[in-house]
Hints:
Layout: E1 8-12, E2 17-19, E3 28-34, E4 37-40, E5 53-54, E6 59-60, H1 62-67, E7 74-77, E8 81-87, H2 91-97, H3 99-125, H4 135-145, H5 149-162, H6 169-179, E9 196-199, E10 204-206, E11 214-220, E12 223-229, E13 232-239, E14 244-245, H7 247-252, E15 259-262, E16 266-272, H8 273-282, H9 284-308, H10 313-327, E17 338-339, H11 344-350, H12 355-365, E18 371-374, E19 377-380, H13 384-406
Antiparallel strand pairs: 1-8, 2-7, 3-6, 3-8, 4-5, 4-7, 9-16, 10-15, 11-14, 11-16, 12-13, 12-15, 17-19, 18-19
Helix pairs in contact: 2-3, 2-9, 3-9, 4-5, 5-6, 9-10, 10-12, 10-13, 11-12
Amino acid sequence: MEAPLQLTFVTFKKDTYIIVEGKQSADRFFIIREGKVRVAKEVEVVEEEGGNVLGPGDFFGVVSTMSNHSHIETAQALTDCVLISVHRDNYGLLIEKNTPVAMKIIMAFSRRMRFLDEALTRLTLKSTAEADPSHLFRVGEYYARQNQFNQAYYAYYQYLKFCPTGQHVALAKERLAKIKPFAKAVYLDGPAEEFNRFYPKDTMVFSEGMTGGELYIIQKGSVKITKIVDNNEVLLAVLKAGDIFGEMAILENKPRSASAIAYEDAYLLAVNKANFERMVRTQPQIVTRLTTLLAERIWFIYKQLANTLISDPLGRMYDALLIQLEKNRVPLRQGASHVFDFGPKELINMVGLPLGEGNLVVHKLLENQKFRVIENKLNVIDVSEIEKQTEYYRKMQKIERSRREGMPVR
């Protein structure tokens, strides 16, 4: 017998706090049935789209609940409220019974992701996240210079497809002919009827700047997500079996903001828009997975955005390390050691510092006896030290902000 969907109605009096930022164990989110709720963050990094006062039909707490992380916002009742409380375990059942709610949550997540991603790119990479098809030529040029001909061929090919009258058409055709003998590019036109795809290592799934109508689920292998910024390839993520990517293009019909490249031989399931809507109705477990992944990414981007507001670069490094520990659910036990899967260069990249300045800050970090670099991986002999140092720098930042805001304007 099918399990019934059990929703709990809860009431909150005016001015009551419903959820509090930073508190752990977010296991349920809320849909507003009656009343108004104000959502705020201790540090408003960017002005949220749609404002921060929510009403009937709106929801909050989904990011922390579905990512199973600490709350990233505080919600307070502006009026007496009646809310529907949804436990994480009931999410699959909720979307099975109510597809429009699932689509509303996913679309809201997608818009929020795009918005936050653009804000983060502006702040850390000092460039705009909006790629347009002409950018494909620059992507091709970058990979051609690196002798990475699979990626270069793919990007040039897409440039000619999306910009048939572009200013670099003749050059792109010339480059294509030159590198064709050395390039292995697959699914250049992405056959819509073929859902199971094989991408050999170092071949492109899609390039930043192109439009696309599919998301992908990794069945086997891994895929790296990268972005070309100031003539450098920035590694944004390495995704593994079970991960979903490319959902922005299918949900929002906008150009790809990053490239996806097979990190090792990858077997992918491609899902187009029509199949996606059918999937929402018939396969709640995949939609739950997509919601969880989007929630993870949004939580992580919020943390990264808050990191940009710490003015002391050493404080930013400690905070970035703490974010990585929380992201990977590493228990912050006193005396427990941890090896990060990256080294100093990647840490500098994470906090958006120029290499020269970043190296000086890393040198300062390594003056702390609890840190070592072994085989180009950052090691810490006591993870609680990272939490302690981060708390100190966040506290200093708060004092500095209060002092600044309390000062009379001259």
